[in-house]
Amino acid sequence: MRFRSLFTSVARSHVPIFPPLLTRSTANPTTPWFFPCTRLGSPPGGRFGSALIAPATTTDDAQRPPFAPLPPPTADKAEMYKGLEASLGSPFSSDPLAPPPSPIIVVISGPSGVGKDAIIKKLQEVREGIHFVVTATSRPQRPGEVDGKDYYFVSKEEFLLMVERNELLEYALVYGDYKGIPKQQIRDYMAKGFDIVLRVDIQGAATLRSILGQSAVFIFLVAESEATLVNRLVARNTESPEMLLVRIATAREEIKYMKRFDYIVVNAEGKLDSAVKLVESIIDAEKARVWHRNVKI
């Protein structure tokens, strides 16, 4: 209590309790020192860009809040909280200290047979707040596929009309059929705060990179080996031997584009859950970035 009384009387008289902070003009140049400062900003150009530092300003006596004694050490939680507010002269804010993460666009791509559809389907089951953009396509509907859920199945004439109306973010002719991404879906769901997941082939990913640049996250899916990839294509039983050869040859070329993506995820046989967890980790890490990706569609 004697120390507390001494501290209070000194604080009222504005006599400094501690010695002045050292400066290079009065101290050994090799001696480190500290000074009160305010960070004015850090440019986004580098991970640790040079920050502008300015000395903290002092408050004039006329601007100081009226002195309020600190609560006693025996004060309960509520009394301590109110006492600290009174001593600081302002209430504590309940506003979030960090800004809410912005919705992001995740582009998932890879050769045929790597499991893009399986990854996305599982991701939708285990994660909230994401929207898988349903792609429009002119190819025939496969057994088990649902129109409006797996794809929007349209005729080539209808697809070309969508192109003419500028309704597609990206489109391409793939194995003789058109595929494209409707813009309005992305706008509507991002406005609701949803993260967007796009499934495209390598050609589509290249086009999206040229359109979106670094504003989207690009993930490259691969199987653990070429043998596994071929076995998956054969097991689908949806193509003729001639078309299988085309897909395998195309996959060999597409693998070369792997390094142009932001992340690589191996979808190993029997380990779908692990691959999905890795995709989730990528999304979580991206949403925790200090500098958010700014997407405009």
From TrEMBL:
Residues 103-284 form the Guanylate kinase-like domain. InterPro entries: GK/Ca_channel_bsu, Guanylate_kin-like_dom, Guanylate_kinase, Guanylate_kinase_CS, P-loop_NTPase. Its EC number is 2.7.4.8. GO terms for molecular function: ATP binding; GMP kinase activity. PROSITE patterns: GUANYLATE_KINASE_1, GUANYLATE_KINASE_2. Pfam families: Guanylate_kin (PF00625). The keyword Transmembrane does not apply. GO terms for cellular component: cytosol. The keyword Manganese does not apply. Keywords: ATP-binding, Kinase, Nucleotide-binding, Transferase. PANTHER family: GUANYLATE KINASE, GUANYLATE KINASE-RELATED. Belongs to the guanylate kinase family. This is guanylate kinase.
